């Protein structure tokens, strides 16, 4: 807090009813950690020790966003330890959890002005960061997979009918039909009135996220464990 301009930011957070921030990376003691760095990131950064955890509260942060591209830098084990340390430090974290349902659900912070709800998700992340449900194999049920709440999106190229049909013909067997669209490798093309580009959300992700928002807006917050 030696920078006076940064100190002003701290004053704003400390005087707010709810201080909110994105919590990037991991919080655990690397010397005691028994997990492994993730393949996608190689173990980007670990911010361990009580000093760092206390630092969140010292600057007035009480609510943190854990759905981000560095949530699983140290795999699901690192995320689990981080979530436990955030809870132990008295911080409310959203967007990640010990299962897909835990990562999706809203989290709540009690303030002097009322309850603040947070629904967190990320659209940029390593594929292995996505939280998952338990899996049943050979009459045995696994534990669910810790991870983040994902919002899968894809970039779609829009083409007028004549150009769209020319592309379909040129691609031949390389084009995969997807209803009103075709996919060539990782690129999706859809017929439209003019050339353009748009981003489309995965419908199941959208439904889950909006469902969490509706739950948070209901005025009847549910209390969950991690």
Structural class: alpha/beta
| Proportion of residues in helical segments | 25-40%
Number of helices: 6
The end-to-end distance, rounded to whole angstroms, is 32 Å
- Percent in strands: 15-25%
One letter per element, helices H and strands E, the order comes to: HEHEHEEHEEEEEEHEEEEH
Shape: globular
Total count of strands: 14
Task: From the alpha carbons, calculate the radius of gyration and give it in angstroms.
Answer: 21 Å
Mind describing the biggest β-sheet? Answer: 5 strands, mixed
Mean pLDDT: 88
Give the uncertain stretches in residue-range form. none
For the largest beta sheet, what order do the strands appear in spatially? Answer: 11-12-13-10-14
Number of domains: 2
Short description:
By secondary structure, the protein is of the alpha/beta class.
Q: Any overview of this molecule?
A:
By secondary structure, the protein is α/β, with parallel strands linked by helices. The protein has two domains: 4-146 and 203-217, no CATH class; 153-200, no CATH class. It has six helices and 14 strands. The strands form five sheets. A five-stranded mixed sheet has the order 11-12-13-10-14. Strands 1-2-3 form a three-stranded parallel sheet, with helices on one face. The mean pLDDT is 88.
Tags for this model:
226 residues, alpha/beta, 2 domains, 23% strand, globular
Topology:
Elements: H1 4-14, E1 20-22, H2 50-58, E2 63-65, H3 75-88, E3 92-94, E4 96-97, H4 100-104, E5 107-111, E6 114-118, E7 136-137, E8 140-141, E9 147-148, E10 153-159, H5 161-171, E11 175-178, E12 181-184, E13 187-191, E14 196-201, H6 203-217
Parallel strand pairs: 1-2, 2-3, 10-13
Antiparallel strand pairs: 4-9, 5-6, 7-8, 10-14, 11-12, 12-13
